[in-house]
Structure formats: structure tokens, C-alpha cells
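Anyone able to model this chain together with flavin-adenine dinucleotide?
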Amino acid sequence: MNDVVVIGLGPAGLSAALRLAESGRRVLLVAKGEGGFQLSQGTIDVFGYAPQPVTDPLAAIGELTNGHPYAQLGAGRVRDAVSWLRDVLGEELLVGDPGRNYWLPTALGAMRPTALAQPSMVAAHQAASYAVVGFRQLKDYPTALLAGNLGCPFAWVDLPARREADSSALSYARALEDPAYAKQFSAAVAAAAPEGDVLLLPAMLGVRPGSWRRIADQVGRPIAEVPLQPPSVPGIRLHDALLARFKAAGGRVIIGSRVVGCRTDGDKVASVRLAVAGGTRDLRASDFVFAPGGFASGSIAVDSYGTITEPVFGLPLTATNAHELIGPDYWAPHPLFEVGVKVDDAGRARYDNLYLAGDIIAGAERWREKSGEGIAVATAFRAAESIMGGQA
Ligand SMILES: Cc1cc2nc3c(=O)[nH]c(=O)nc-3n(C[C@H](O)[C@H](O)[C@H](O)COP(=O)(O)OP(=O)(O)OC[C@H]3O[C@@H](n4cnc5c(N)ncnc54)[C@H](O)[C@@H]3O)c2cc1C
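re: yes, here you go
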């Protein structure tokens, strides 16, 4: 039997699974699909807006009141969890400090706050000036708009990733793992790049961590990767590294199957039911970590009458009627996104051996606060620590 079944392959599920597997637990990770890393910038946002821009996420977390997931965790646990993730992935993948935000450019030329970033990005923090290089075959990098909003010069390079009209960031990233192509790419960038202290390139400088350094050396100037829309190459780097470490620690994975229900035994979950071809399969474990995301991943359902439910465990939610929880326009607050499950100090809900992590936990509008990844990692860490403490 498994010690722990972890449900979800986003930042929360991967973090909890890795922490538990590295502590020697037999962990099975199950997910119906990929999680939030492939959609993200490949950074770890801890707390960006409160709602005013945040310089020190830990200090701002210390000022939050009850109801927010961070208020229950406290700044110390958030610091420990986010630092653990940075250290476990290593400085080739994540650098920074949960107590200090970088300000890095988006592909539209706005500056956004984030606590941990990839080393290929951080030269853009507080640079005196920028220059932008775009690629004619890459439609996802709005080069002129980015440069216009930053007030800096730009230039184009005409170099496809493969023999095709348009190239995606992922096809460039894969092509750049070939040293001969990387050399050709770097020479073209160096020849085209206008004046500016830091050269902003689309976040596609290799699928593997560290590949960007070869390109930076060949270009011979400070460069910074700017995240693009999904699929995110920097997000894939984080996802792949966490999953590889989890497997190396003995973890097992089932991807592509949905958990559809559970069997309980008194105050405990005995097993979860996995949908498989032709029926269901029970997965038994001593403990369960439920990290299925929030509305965006379909883990919280709203039917045509506006009734909100959590369908797998039937967990109680902080609201059950979606009417009036959606703001009048896009930028208005949408309390619907704060709906979720309340947990106890160990991270449990309803059952003694069911621990929650990530977006399923109530009380934050993550995308607006830029807090989703920090909450995911910190609540995953708490879930793992609770389980490890309970078995010690
Ligand atoms: C449009 C948008 C923009 C955002 N922008 C930001 C931002 O800028 N900064 C920030 O910090 N956060 C942002 N967020 C939030 C961030 O994406 C989430 O907080 C983060 O991904 C949560 O991680 P998670 O692991 O809890 O869930 P997810 O990353 O959603 O992963 C959930 C996992 O669970 C699996 N799953 C779900 N249900 C089941 C089931 N029944 N059975 C099996 N598997 C299941 C899914 O397949 C997936 O693998 C944004 C979110 C959205 C929607």
C-alpha cells in the first residue's frame, strides 16, 4: 500500500509529493492533466500586490488578517517552504529571496513582482536600460510593443527554429539544445542587438536549465529571458525538474486519470477512486494530499443554477451559491475566486488523514495578488510536514 496518495500535478501537488518522497514515504502522484507551471512565468510569485505593490512579501504576509491562507500559515512557514523549494531545485533553476521581490518585465513591457525567478531572468531587475530582440517567426513576442512600453530600442532577427513559417517558443527552446543551432542563433542576435544595458530575449533559451548561459556567453552581453504565454518554457523547466526529482526519490506517477470519488472509514479516507478504462480503481493509502487546483482546473464546480460544489470528497465550501460572487467587470473583485475549503492548522479538512494544498484552499484571489505559487508551495510544505510529523 502507498503511504501517501497526492492528487494534482501543479506547484502544490509536485511540492508535497517531492517533500514526502525525499523523506522516505512511498508516494503515488495522480493527476488528470498537467498543472499550473506550464501556464506560468516559471517564477514563484509569493505576494506581489496587497493590493499596493509589495517590496517584501514576508513583511506584507505578517500584516494579513484571518481568512487568508497566509495568515494561518504565518510568514515564517512561508519563508521556510519557499526557501526549501529554491534550495531543492538549486540556483541553476531558482534564485531570489521570499523576503524581497524582483521587478521583471512582462512580454507587454509592464513590470511585475516575483520572489523567486530563474537566473536567466534576473538581469532585467532594475537594469539601467534595455534593448529588445524579436524573431520574425515567433508571433508570441510582441517586440515593438514591449520596446515601446519600456522606451527602449528593438531589432528583428530572421531565423526560424525549424523549416516552417512560424515557430513556437518551445520549438526554439528544443532547437537551442543543439550547439550548432545555438551558435547560429547567438551570432544572429549579437549582430542585430541595439544598444542597451540588458538584452531582453523571449523565454526560450533552451529546455534544460543552464542552456541559456552558453547563449549569453556567445552573445557576449547581459541578457534576460522574458516569459511568454503558454506553453511556458521556464514553467516546463520547473515542472520537469520537480517531477524528475520526485521519481528519483522513488515516487510513482499516474497522469491522465481523474480522481472521481472516495471511500471513507469513519473519520478517515480509506481510498480514492480513479477513473480508468471501463470503470474505476481504488487507490489506498494511509494519508492523502488533495491539491487539485481551484476553479481554473475544474476542481470546484459551478452548475447552471449557480450551485458550487467540490465533487471528489464533498468538502464544505466557504460559499455555495455563485450568484453575486462575480464582479461587474473584468478588473472588479470576483469573490467567487476566493471560494474554497477552510483547513485546520495542520492543513486538514473534514477527515483526519486528508490534507489540502494549493488553490483548493479558500481566502485569496491569487492571480490579482500574485500569490498563487507561494500559497501552493507553502500549503504543500505544511501538508507534508504534518504527515511526516504524524508518522514520526
Ligand atoms: C488566468 C490565471 C492567471 C494566474 N496568474 C497568476 C500569477 O500571475 N501569479 C500567481 O502566483 N498565480 C497565478 N495564478 C494562480 C496559479 O496558477 C495557481 O495558484 C497555481 O497554479 C495553483 O497550483 P495548484 O497546484 O494548487 O493547482 P494547479 O496548478 O491548478 O494544478 C492542479 C492539478 O490537479 C489536477 N486535478 C484537478 N482535479 C483533479 C482530479 N479530480 N483528479 C486528478 N487530478 C486532478 C490537475 O490536472 C492539475 O494537475 C493564475 C491563475 C489563473 C487562472
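DSSP finds eleven helices and 17 strands in the chain.
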